[in-house]
Amino acid sequence: MSTSITVFVAKQIITMNRSNPVGTHVAVRDGRVLGVGTLEEVAAWGEYDLDDTFRDHVLVPGMIEVHSHAFEGMTGAVPYQGWFDRTAPDGQILPGLRSFDALIDDLRRLDAEMDDPDEPLVTVGFDPVYFDGARLDRTHLDAVSLTRPIFLFHASAHLATVNTALLTTSGITRDTPAAGVVRGPDGEPNGELQEMPAIALAGAAVSKLFRVISREDTIWNFGRMARQVGVTSVGDLAGQLLAAPHLVERWTRIVNDPAFPARVTVHNLGSSPGSDGDFESAARDLAALRATQQSDKLRFPGVKFVLDGSIQGWTAVMNWPGYITGTDHGQMLTVPEQFVDWARPFHRAGIPIHIHCNGTATIDLAIDTVDQLLREYAWLDHRHTVQHSQLTTEAQFRRMKNLGMCANIFANHLWYWGDVHYERTVGPERANRLEPCGTATRVGVPFSLHSDANVTPLGPLHLIWCAVNRLTPKGRVLGEHEKISAYDALWAVTQGAAYQLHLDHLMGSIECGKYADFAVLAESPLDVDPLRIRDIDVWGTVLGGVKQQAE
Q1: Domain 78-202 class?
Q2: Which CATH code is given to the segment(s) 65-70+215-306+335-413+428-508?
Q3: pLDDT, position 96
């Protein structure tokens, strides 16, 4: 007989609720958890249906990715030219390219397959930092075509490399004033565009890319890819809904569809990186969006600002002594003295502020700004967050703790760029401090872990693996003393992430009253060999009590 209560039985339930840490049964009604414990304990809620689908699996709280991007949903829809293999939403493996010759051959193939000779050839995922020898420039791409515009969007999403045809059609010359237009020894643009003010000059290519990003199938695939890796709440941390309000209807219709397999949080950009804006109006618009368009599945928890670029692109802004190349190439994407004025309207409106800071100098700027805002307008539970927080020092973490700030740590950098940082960008000592989860734990700063997908693939088990093992592809352990336990890493992608979103009363643990959101795993990440954590099979998720099996 069917009842309104379902009891799921599992080999083990890891609740991340410290007062009731484990169980074997969880009772669910109306999409929420009634209780966790033994069958006898949860049966106290009344008549139930027993679901033993997960009798041989482990349940953990649905994992939460605060900082990714809807870009992840377009994986495979735009040609991929990264170094590492990637998985598309349909499970197809997109092979990495490990040489310039392979890259150029692939571009020639793509060029030959295109009909319109004037259509830009756009690819994603390339990162020159992995290749030895001369850095890719327009002359390499000119060998593919002198007539078709070519645009390679780097893996970091902070740089692009283009050919002469694209420079010409976009009107980018030696006299173009944008700081990110890199010039060669002859003073002419060499084809590298750094940061969005320069990248945006390649209008036709950027428009083609962003049309794909905002497509309906991209949003659907964003949710599907979350389900594949055990994520029940996935975040787009560069939302465009303030700049493009016509997209609000699309997002609300798709995400609120019962078939959409995840909850979504969208942190909209306060302004395009590197540009000014009307922040009073933006804060009012975001407050209105939060008041009228939020649901249990779609939320707009805060605003996002981008202060600098990427470490591996040498555009993150570093304190002394800068990069080990001897030159500080950092590019500040705001006027430091003005940032407090940008952030103030959101703080006053009670809107949490998430601040992209890769370099140590911009971390200082974020902390100083929050300090000033709190002196002006008290807010004891703001949870303003430093995003990426890659090289945060212990002194910076102490200030963050005292100000009530959070950190979202980009743990995947340890694997994808750890060797690069050790050898080429910041050197051994600072590379051993990269993604300092251990220091954040010791100081007591609340933190989560993120993938920045599609910069790196969506997947919290890989984030946990990185934070626990701190291994690089060359076998280095970057910072033995920055390792954290598997429990603390799992906490970061569940309770830590929920806290950062001001949603820890609804998600992040399996306990009475919270959403019945679970990740279904073949094994416990707390019990397997730490080196195997990223290889644990994911059955799928349970979202609001509804089973969502991975495809």
Answers
A1: alpha beta
A2: 3.20.20.140
A3: 96
